[in-house]
Amino acid sequence: MNAPHVLIDLLGACWVTDACVVDAVWDRSGQCAGFALGDGTLALATGVWEGGPRLNPRESGGVEFVQAQAPPAPLARFSVHEGTCLALTADAAGGFLSGGDDGRLVHLCLDGTSELVAHEADAWMDHVAASPVCGRAYANGRRVQWLGPKPACLMLPGAVTSLAFDPGGTRLAISHHGGVTLWAADTLRQRELAWPGYHRAVAWSPDGHYLVSGMQENALHGWRLSDGVDIEMGGYPAQPRSLSFSADGRFLATSGGMRAVCWRFDPPRANDEPHECGMAGKAPVSRVACHPVHPLIAVGYQSGAVLLCQPGSSGVLFIKGFGDSAISALVWSPDGRRLALGTEAGELALVFLPDELFRFGSRG
């Protein structure tokens, strides 16, 4: 890597709000980043910065930094919930799907228009998911409601803690106490992946062959779905609540430690030990996000710092320095050229990270 130390000051568009950033996602087109805020609003930041900073390649090698010629577009905020935004995902119809503690499931378009998709009085829309194949799903308490071509309802043995569609968008993973339930869109059949403990987060491998959950018991548990083989991954000092597979599926990066913890998945083997990357300090890792193209991991810390690192390398590249609030959201745009981040104190940013910044081969 070849770049200045703190890139947010050179290549970042930053805003400050008065509410905690609950989550952040990019819309499916990659044009806009959406931030769910604790005051019930959604903040939208365009991924295009006309006249923004750029990097020009030098004939002698390296890059030359060119300062911004114009400010970034202002942040747009829209009130969608009467209370708090609890969950956010990119919607297959464009824009975003948001769930709140007011019992409302809302579809927000990029132009700011919104539609009430579902409303359940005296219930929280704790988790939401959307698939271009199978429609929308949401969870409140122990119940998951499917709003796809075959609307259906499923009661779980415990409170739902996360929802995630597989890469093909045809199976919904639902984590809860005692394991993970897979719900198939075409048949609505369920498959129980049982393992004792409280499962809090789930991640699919890019090929859909593996499913991994982060557990309250400071461990991961995975399944090879072809035959149901269990994969145990422990030894964490804290809960691994943020999970992210590399684009090629060769490793899984997680939070739960003082550095990003990486596990081999090419394939995983018995008694494999993880390796760590990033910098260790006094604050643990709060969020991880693998680059959608390159072997890079964005790592956010409870201290507010964000850096880039590579598995197997000791080098790091600082995106954001230490602050007063933890990183609560961290997500790459689909093309990997922009990184959206948010903090518990309401700081929002888009950092523009073109390929010229990194020593990787050009894209085909």
Automatic annotation (TrEMBL):
<dbReference type="InterPro" id="IPR015943">
    <property type="entry name" value="WD40/YVTN_repeat-like_dom_sf"/>
</dbReference>
<dbReference type="Pfam" id="PF12894">
    <property type="entry name" value="ANAPC4_WD40"/>
</dbReference>
<dbReference type="InterPro" id="IPR024977">
    <property type="entry name" value="Apc4-like_WD40_dom"/>
</dbReference>
<protein>
    <submittedName>
        <fullName>Vegetatible incompatibility protein HET-E-1</fullName>
    </submittedName>
</protein>
<feature type="domain" description="Anaphase-promoting complex subunit 4-like WD40">
    <location>
        <begin position="294"/>
        <end position="351"/>
    </location>
</feature>
<dbReference type="InterPro" id="IPR001680">
    <property type="entry name" value="WD40_rpt"/>
</dbReference>
<dbReference type="InterPro" id="IPR036322">
    <property type="entry name" value="WD40_repeat_dom_sf"/>
</dbReference>
<dbReference type="Pfam" id="PF00400">
    <property type="entry name" value="WD40"/>
</dbReference>
